[in-house]
Amino acid sequence: MHRVVFDPGHGGVDPGAVSGAAIEKDISLVIALAAADLLAARDDFYIEVTRETDINLNLELGLEERVDFSDRQNADLFVSVHCNAMAPGSPANGFEVFHYYGSQAGNQAASDVFKALEGKVPEIAPRSVKEAGFYVIKNTQAPAILVECGFLTSDHDRPNLESPGFQQKYGKAIAAGILQYFGV
Ligand SMILES: [Zn+2]
User: Fold this and answer.
1) Do residues 112 and 174 make contact, with C-beta atoms less than 8 angstroms apart?
2) What are the boundaries of each domain within the chain?
3) Confidence at residue 61, expressed as pLDDT on a 0 to 100 scale
4) Distance 43 CA to ligand 1 centre (A)
5) Whole-number Cα distances in Å, 59 to 24, 50, 135, 175
6) 45 CA to middle of ligand 1, Å?
7) For site-directed labelling of 116, which of 24, 38, 128, 173 has its Cα 20 to 30 A away?
8) How far is 23 from 44, CA to CA, in rounded Å?
9) Domain 2-182 - what CATH class?
10) What integer is the mean pLDDT of 70-98?
11) Integer angstrom CA distances of residue 42 from 3, 108, 120, 176, 178
């Protein structure tokens, strides 16, 4: 049984990046749930999600709680889902997948998800697999990745990321990369 914890970024009073009507917490939630549902339908995966709704102030999941949740689930892989943003008008676009510095398993998972996105989500340009020290990928016991799905500030990425159909497709692509990582 492969145990995966999905972590839709932000939520509640923390919207994450906002660009026009596009709000990171909402988009990351739909994409993460799409990936989670797909894997949860299989009998070889055990799936948990740090938040399944737009959690309100009292239930706000801080970064520490997200890590503790993953550790309590004894996850084999932690997948945080976010959307990027730059200053309005910035031309930056594309997706990137992060893992913690020096994590071999993290690098493998990040590379597998990156390749799946490259193949299945051609609408968003590939940037690269990167190392970083973000709290959630640093502190989970499980190998961890953080997917920045695209730039909400990009006139190219935003219309795709706002599309419900595209969000489902994006979640499926992340799931495909995770299947690749586990070799199933
Ligand atoms: Zn974020």
Assistant:
1) no
2) 2-182
3) 72
4) 30
5) 18, 11, 19, 27
6) 26
7) 24
8) 33
9) alpha beta
10) 95
11) 12, 22, 20, 13, 13
141 alpha carbon – ligand 1 mean position (Å): 21
Q: Is the pLDDT score of 95 beyond 60?
A: yes
Give the residues across from 47 on adjacent strands: 4
Residue type, 54: D
Task: Give the pLDDT score at 178.
Answer: 98
User: Cβ(8)–Cβ(29) under 8 Å?
Assistant: yes
Rounded mean pLDDT, 36-63: 88
Distance, CA 134 to ligand 1 centroid (Å)?
11
Q: Show the tokens assigned to 36.
A: 């989670």
Ligand 1 centroid – CA 94 distance (Å) = 15
